[in-house]
Amino acid sequence: MSVPEDHPRAESLKVREKIIEGMHNSIVAEAGLIAHGRGEAFDYIIGEKTPDFAFKQQEAAVALLLLAEKPVISVNGNVAALCSKETVELAELVGASIEINLFYRKAEREKAIEEVLKEAGDIEILGIDPTYHTYISELSHLRRIVDKRGIFSADVVMVPLEDGDRTMALRKMGKNVISIDLNPLSRTALWSNITIVNNLIRAFPEMIEIAKRLRGKDNIVLKKILADFNNFNSLKETLSEISKGLNKLAKGNLKDPTKKLK
Ligand code: PTJ
């Protein structure tokens, strides 16, 4: 469907269309539509723009990616449909590998996601060649299949838009996990080393700009950014800022649009 430009929620509808198109092209799982809707609800609450707390989370995440010896960005259907170009650009800037890792794993989806990533840039895509498959023993579902050259041997794994048990398993394997999740209360959010509470459609381009700024910096500068960051405190700050915003609305900032009718 083409979205009317004068629709008050045109931008949000365009993103929805990308997800729906992704589902028809086998990139997005059916459940990915539900996940997207959950994300939309949280995004509404943070005002559909990047809050200050998310800028700090994004900066810490980029510092960790730049300091990593073997960073990997894990891609699923929603990420591929919304941010394939940005995923490739960020990976190139921070020297990360890209690995496809799906909950609803099907060869057809892997192929479609690989194609869209390859269109975005000439980069090797891990996770789909069975020669290199190994398993995360803690997991019983299909996300357990990982690439020996990628997630399995990585020191830092970025998991935008994730279901929580893999994050827990990766942490138990000693890996550092960066997640992007609009729900600050999810298991993914609570178990990550760095949780970015932002929409990935804003987080990725902003992280690209941060990576360009931090790339040439000394490791001491990057380590200082990380030392100043604590994920649990950051999540508490996130919840506090969200509550403050809602309280302000409740106490008078919410404008009654129907007043125009009187
Ligand atoms: O592509 P697959 O097969 O790997 O399947 C992926 C899905 C999305 C189906 C799977 O990972 C899943 O079920 O995820 P959940 O458990 O629904 O979690 C998704 C989380 O991402 C929720 O907390 C949402 O609030 C959040 N979310 C959704 N859209 C966005 C988002 N966070 C950031 N940006 C978004 N655009």
What does this protein structure show overall?
The protein starts with 9 loop residues before the first helix and ends in a 9-residue tail after the last helix. It is globular and about 70 Å long. With 262 residues, the protein is α/β, with parallel strands linked by helices. The strands form two sheets. Strands 3-2-1-6-7-8 form a six-stranded parallel β-sheet, sandwiched between helices. It has a single domain, classed as Phosphopantoate/pantothenate synthetase (Rossmann fold, 3-Layer(aba) Sandwich), CATH 3.40.50.12640. The chain contains ten helices and eight strands. Helices cover 53% and strands 11% of the residues. The site of ligand PTJ has 25 residues, from helix 2, helix 4 and helix 8.
Q: Which kinds of small molecule does this entry bind, naming each only once?
A: ligand PTJ
Secondary-structure element string: HHHEHEHEEEEHEHEHHH
The overall pLDDT average reads 94
Largest beta sheet, briefly? Answer: 6 strands, parallel
Overall CATH architecture? 3-Layer(aba) Sandwich
What topology does this entry show?
Blueprint: H1 10-24, H2 30-45, H3 52-67, E1 71-75, H4 77-94, E2 97-100, H5 107-120, E3 125-126, E4 133-135, E5 145-147, E6 156-160, H6 164-172, E7 176-180, H7 187-191, E8 194-196, H8 200-214, H9 219-227, H10 231-253
Parallel strand pairs: 1-2, 1-6, 2-3, 6-7, 7-8
Antiparallel strand pairs: 4-5
Give a nutshell description of this structure.
With 262 residues, the chain is of the alpha/beta class. 53% of the residues lie in helices and 11% in strands. The chain has one domain: Rossmann fold (3-Layer(aba) Sandwich).
